[in-house]
Design brief:
Keywords: Signal. By secondary structure, the protein is of the alpha/beta class. The protein is 23% helix and 35% strand.
Amino acid sequence: MRHTVSILTAAALALGATTAIAQQSGYTGPSNAPKAAVQGSDSGPGTAQLTTVKQLLSTGRDDQPARLQGRIVSFEGDERYTFEDATGRMIVEIDDEDFPAGQTVSAEQRVELIGEFDKGRTRDEFEVDRVILLP
């Protein structure tokens, strides 16, 4: 049992060091989602319109389906990331399984986020249902 705990502790420390390095050079997202979750038909909201960070922050409605195109520029912790497009930045919430399976997402990679706007009393953010890598 002690040996197992030591191995898990070492693995956790190694993962923490990797995360710190990734944050310095730009975010590199997880890629452990099952392939079935990202293949096939679109699992995002069917009525989601392409919009910008500026439009969502200024006129977005709570629970409004939307699509954003830009870059995930940093990891803020607890499934929260900073997303940037040509009009601004906002916090987005992305579960690990919503990233593309088997693919790395860097701060330079353009992505499309499909999800819904969460208009809060103190903070607005975008809850992501799916991340799509753009060419």
